[in-house]
Amino acid sequence: MSSVDYSLSIDLDRDFDEVVSATRAALADEGFGVLTEIDVKATMKTKLDVDLEEYLILGACNPPLAHQALGAEPEIGVLLPCNVVVYRTDGTTRVSAVAAEQMLGMVGNAELAPIAAEVAGRLDRVLAAVAAA
User: What is the CATH number of the domain that holds 121?
Assistant: First the structure.
């Protein structure tokens, strides 16, 4: 697993559609539903006539955790849902998930820390499950 300050990622030598399916299943197993889906490749082709490799943004939400976060910080909605991205790069399929503790930590509300830790743990397990699938 690799990371930058704002995401955790895994690289897989597997088919894009297979990885998307595994990601959806792993998210569901951790209590996340996919509220939004953005096909960046199709959007860029339609809007800009630019050809990109496969790139899909899944807006994932765990309703009980989102409810807790909104109760602690009503403005947190600007940072929801948790994005998980599946895309092709350099011949591999990458899955990246938002680093929840960093994202929610920037708010400066201590009540969000345990919620962020729970989200982070679940997203870590999602990536591990996708890697093992």
Answer: 3.30.310.70
E-strand ranges in 15-123 read 33-39, 55-61, 82-89, 92-98
- In angstroms, rounded to a whole number, what is the distance separating the alpha carbons of residues 47 and 6? 27
Give the single-character DSSP code of 109: -
Using only C-alpha atoms, what is the Rg of the chain?
A: 15
The number of angstroms, rounded, from the C-alpha of 79 to the middle of its chain's C-alpha atoms is 12
Average pLDDT, the chain: 94
Q: Tokens 């960046």 label which residue?
A: 40
Domain that holds residue 49: 2-132
pLDDT at 3 over 70: no
How many domains are there within the chain?
A: 1
Task: Round to whole Å and give the CA distance between 127 and 29.
Answer: 12
Strands 33-39 and 7-12: unpaired
| C-beta separation of 43 from 121 below 8 A | no
Residues linked to residue 55 through DSSP beta bridges, in sequence order? 87
Say if CB 16 and CB 88 are below 8 A apart.
yes
